[in-house]
């Protein structure tokens, strides 16, 4: 049975991984926004309603929706010994190194018997005021005079399931993330792929969270079964692409023969390649107009020498590059119709970050009405989702979804 199969951005979507935003969003504060990569504090109740509407849109289109929190809870359910290992690793990676606090946190979390509740709690984070700490005379306790303070950070970016790993063919690029705050997110996928009954022993890992260089799923686009596009961005280092390419070409069964590495500006509005363009039909993309000039792209293939790569630099427009590699003339539809103010505004709210369900049918945020109108005029079938709160995390429908299976 196929458990992962993604060889395109547009072939009919069959199964997708989401995370319903939870109480982790309640632990965002103005002081932590920047570190936790948010721009504002979403209203949880409405964010959840919007997210449920997203999931319903997908189900109505015949897509099977699975949730990260359920898969992780099932993983713990199926492997009774794993809970202790998971919690210890989780606490350590959260930066708790004092033995005493490790034990306090372990006992606190381990007391939650229901596995799903436990998983949700790890996502939410732990406040000092929940812990029954007898004040000792230790320096740490004396200095910690606050009453309400997060001792285990929340993971508010989890609802962007696009980023911790990427499905490529029947394999998985399991990422090392750019930021400390997101790196713990990949523990869940690591456990699911290694230990969940449905996945264990069946998934080839093309990259690994232990590797030193960072790469994120928002930068990985499956152009077709042979060509992968990857952004060189704030989130993805060239060194990671180099390692991934060598793994793919020389140490895996992956069918990818060519990687196109797109050099994009290192700034927040461009954080991943999928904030700059997404494919919406066989020959159509939505794009950020700022990327329409000449681009630098590196074509990476196998070299004649084993374990080495052949890299060729290309300088051309996005339109020419995509047309050449997809072997069809492509139409790039600029976000906001090309008007600079509208484009900047709608881009900020992920106007060019759409999720394609099948060629020509895409999920978009309601708030980007200028871009949406243009897309409709171009003949696209838009599935419009509410977006007032979810968009505050700076990610759109593509960021909020990880395809597990697309039809061939
Ligand atoms: N694939 C994406 N574009 N993801 C958007 C992620 C947004 C998230 N707040 C971050 O900064 O990491």
TrEMBL record:
GO biological process annotation, one example: L-arginine deiminase pathway
Family to which the UniProt record says this protein belongs: Belongs to the arginine deiminase family.
Top EC category: hydrolase
Localization of this protein: Cytoplasm
The name this protein goes by in its record: Arginine deiminase
Gene Ontology MF annotations: arginine deiminase activity
PANTHER family cross-referenced by the UniProt entry: ARGININE DEIMINASE (PTHR47271:SF2)
Annotated catalytic residues: 399
Short name of one Pfam family: ADI
Keyword vocabulary terms for this entry: Arginine metabolism, Cytoplasm, Hydrolase
Any one cellular-component term (Gene Ontology): cytoplasm
Record EC number: 3.5.3.6
Primary localisation category: cytoplasm
Reaction(s) catalysed by this chain's protein: L-arginine + H2O = L-citrulline + NH4(+)
Superkingdom of origin: Bacteria
Pathway: Amino-acid degradation; L-arginine degradation via ADI pathway; carbamoyl phosphate from L-arginine: step 1/2
């Amino acid at each position: 049975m196929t458990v992962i199969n993604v060889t395109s951005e547009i072939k009919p979507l069959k199964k997708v991984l989401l995370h319903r935003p939870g109480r982790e969003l309640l632990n965002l504060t103005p002081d932590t926004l920047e570190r936790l990569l948010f721009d504002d504090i979403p209203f949880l109740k409405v964010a959840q309603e919007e997210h449920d509407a997203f999931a319903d849109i997908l189900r109505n289109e015949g897509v099977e929706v699975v949730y990260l929190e359920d898969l992780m809870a099932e993983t713990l359910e199926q492997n009774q010994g794993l809970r202790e290992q998971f919690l210890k690793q989780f606490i350590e990676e959260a930066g708790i190194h004092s033995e005493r606090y490790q034990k306090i946190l372990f006992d606190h979390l381990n007391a939650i018997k229901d596995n799903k509740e436990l998983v949700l709690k790890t996502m939410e984070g732990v406040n000092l005021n929940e812990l029954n700490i007898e004040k000792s005379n230790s320096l740490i306790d004396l200095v910690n005079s606050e009453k309400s303070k997060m001792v285990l950070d929340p993971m508010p970016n989890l609802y962007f399931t696009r980023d911790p790993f990427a499905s490529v063919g029947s394999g998985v690029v399991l990422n090392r993330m750019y930021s400390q705050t997101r790196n713990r997110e990949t523990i869940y996928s690591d456990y699911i792929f290694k230990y969940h009954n449905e996945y264990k022993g069946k998934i080839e890992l093309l990259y690994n969270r232990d590797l030193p260089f960072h790469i994120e799923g928002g930068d990985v686009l499956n152009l077709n079964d042979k060509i992968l596009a990857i952004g060189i961005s704030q989130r993805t280092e060239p060194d990671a692409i180099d390692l991934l390419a060598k793994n793919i070409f020389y140490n895996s069964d992956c069918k990818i023969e060519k990687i196109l590495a797109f050099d994009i500006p290192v700034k927040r509005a461009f954080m991943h390649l999928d904030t700059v363009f997404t494919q919406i039909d066989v020959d159509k993309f939505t794009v950020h107009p700022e990327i329409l000039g000449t681009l630098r792209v590196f074509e990476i293939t196998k070299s004649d020498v084993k374990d080495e790569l052949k890299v060729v630099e290309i300088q051309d427009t996005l339109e020419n590059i995509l047309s050449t590699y997809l072997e069809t003339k492509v139409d790039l539809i600029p976000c906001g119709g090309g008007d600079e103010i509208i484009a900047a505004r709608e881009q900020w709210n992920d106007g060019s970050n759409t999720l394609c369900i099948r060629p020509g049918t895409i999920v978009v945020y309601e708030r980007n009405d200028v871009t949406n109108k243009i897309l409709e005029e171009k003949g696209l079938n838009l599935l419009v989702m509410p977006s007032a709160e979810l968009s505050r995390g700076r990610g759109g429908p593509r960021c909020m979804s990880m395809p597990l299976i697309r039809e061939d």
